[in-house]
Amino acid sequence: MLEIVDKTHDESRQGEAVAPQAGDTRVYTKKFYIESYGCQMNFNDSEIVASILNKEGFGATRNAEEADLVLLNTCSIREKAEQTVRKRLTEFKKTKKNRPGFLVGVLGCMAERLKAQFLEQEKLVDLVVGPDAYRTLPALIEEAETGQKAINVLLSREETYADISPVRLNSNGVTAFVSIMRGCNNMCAFCVVPFTRGRERSRDQYSIIAEATDLFENGYREVTLLGQNVDSYYFVDEQKDETVTFAGLLEKVAAISPLLRIRFSTSHPKDITDDVLFAMARHENICNYIHLPVQSGSTRILQLMNRTYTREWYMKKVDRIREILPDCGLSTDIITGFCTETEEDHQDTLAVMEYAHYDLAYMFAYSERPGTLAARRYQDDVPEEVKKRRLAEVVALHRRHTLESMQQDVGKTFSVLIEGVSKRSEDDLFGRNDQNKVVVFPKGNHQKGTYVKVKIEACTAGTLLGKVVD
Ligand code: SAH
Ligand code: SF4
Ligand code: F3S
Q1: Are residues 254 and 226 part of one domain?
Q2: How do residues 439-456 score in pLDDT, each as one tens digit?
Q3: How would you label 373-399 residue by residue, b for 16+ Cβ within 10 Å and e otherwise?
Q4: What is the pLDDT of residue 3?
Q5: Do residues 31 and 142 share a domain?
Q6: How far is the CA of 266 from the centre of ligand 2 (A)?
Q7: Superkingdom of this entry's organism (predicted)?
Q8: Any known ligand binding at 191?
Q9: Are residues 392 and 417 in the same domain?
Q10: Are residues 373 and 457 located together in one domain of the fold?
């Protein structure tokens, strides 16, 4: 796994606790502790929650022991993600016994999926707040403080939290997430997100550009535009009679400064347009990296998954990307053992991997989620050990591909945005190249937040190693 991951749903970051914002000198009367699970959108939501809580006099702490309020911002994407949260909640329940007044709340996708269950049946928490209800947190906390069970899991068709400036938690001061939309209108048969996040809605372009500009002025040099399906971004400005698509938005954010890098995640193969690829080609600061989840390489399975593209369509998209952006980094998500998947379907997935030769892949065994199309319509009939064996094969092939992709970069020179000191050595810095690969090099006099040209001399499976050249 790379040192820094760039995607909307990386569970390796499960349970990350946030630190207070550097330089915050306000005096707070109470403390909150928040742990985030799941995708980057959830992490970004925790920053919105922090902003709302700061205004209420709650300061962030990294130490749950000294908090008045503990919040878990949760993920429902796979069963395992939910189990991890349950374990954590049980631990906090024990703490509650010894500390009167100590409140525990569950936010995010599990709150939305399970609604009152944690409050009423399991009696694990004091607060349950769904992803579209964070503005009501102050009122809910007040209710909970008086001993009432506080819950708001209403989903909204409009809420984008556009006017709330996220408080950058755990920030390196160089890279930041900017949510450009919420929810998802696709109905991939395996996926719980449309149920936990509601209908898709795009945030207005002005607040996005203002947030990115503000980040740049505060020293940030990279923004990742976030959405479950960024390519369907669509904003209509009736006053100006203007319609902004994702390609248009990319161009506008890119125009803020050539020194501000733009990334985005996630693209749906059915929606990414040539216009987006041309915008990427036109602007050097829009990074040549696309996360294009394939899920399966079998057309039959893709149809069952309701992904609305075929294996051939996907491969043509890959061709088009390579044609317009020859040095573009490409990553994907793959699910093994989806309902009815045969050995032949699995071989098709391996073949598409050979074709696309991904630089990075996130691979999962299918986990049935209650309420999804697949749970209602199909049988989860691939035995667990078959799912796991196929997953192991997919992972092994991917390992070979990433290593080859890293080796091909040895000898090349890349522009690298420095993000900080390497985790492995105080004497080294690390950053990423355009294609999102982590690059480590000796420190010299170089500073975080600046660009350097690095010539690659060696690599590991996850990291390029090099030296700064003029
Ligand atoms: N919006 C993004 C992904 C959201 S979920 C997209 O459309 O690609 C992130 C990834 O988790 C998915 O791409 C999928 O590979 C995986 N995933 C989602 N539901 C899953 C399930 N029920 N079991 C296993 N993996 C799942
Ligand atoms: Fe889930 Fe599909 Fe929406 Fe992605 S596009 S969030 S996989 S329903
Ligand atoms: Fe994200 Fe997990 Fe919800 S992936 S949208 S936090 S289910």
Answers
A1: yes
A2: 999 999 999 999 999 999
A3: bbbeebebebeeebbeebbebbeebbe
A4: 25
A5: yes
A6: 9
A7: Bacteria
A8: yes
A9: no
A10: no
d(CA 174, CA 168): 11
Neighbours of 284 (CB within 10 A): 13
Q: Nearest-CA neighbor of 54 among 24, 15, 94, 87?
A: 24
- Number of folded domains in the chain? 3
Q: Residue 75 carries which side chain, given as an amino acid letter?
A: C
* Phi-psi label, residue 362: left if phi above 0, alpha if psi -120 to 50, beta otherwise: beta
**Residue 169 CA: distances (Å) to CA of 3, 44, 50, 449:** 18, 9, 8, 17
The pair of structure tokens assigned to 25 is 């000198």
pLDDT, one tens digit per residue, over 37-51 is 999 999 999 999 999
Q: Which two tokens stand for residue 14?
A: 């499960």
Q: Which residues line ligand 2 (CB under 6 A)?
A: 184, 186, 188, 191, 193-194, 228-229, 268
pLDDT value, residue 91: 92
Of the listed ligands, the closest to the CA of 370 is 1
CA distance 231 to 159: 19
Whole-model pTM: value is 0.94
Q: What is the pLDDT at residue 4?
A: 27
Question: Could you tell me whether strands 175-179 and 222-226 are parallel, antiparallel, or unpaired per DSSP bridges?
Answer: parallel
Instruction: State residue 5's pLDDT score.
Output: 33
Distance from the alpha carbon of residue 18 to the mean position of ligand 2, in angstroms: 27
Residues 207 and 85 in one domain: no
CATH value at residue 236: 3.80.30.20
CATH number of the domain that residue 463 is part of: 2.40.50.140
Establish if 2 belongs to a structural domain.
no
Supply the CATH number for residue 37's domain. Answer: 3.40.50.12160
Give yes or no for residue 81 CB within 6 A of ligand 1.
no
Domain that holds residue 210: 175-399
Q: How confident is the model at residue 21 (pLDDT cuts 50, 70, 90)?
A: low
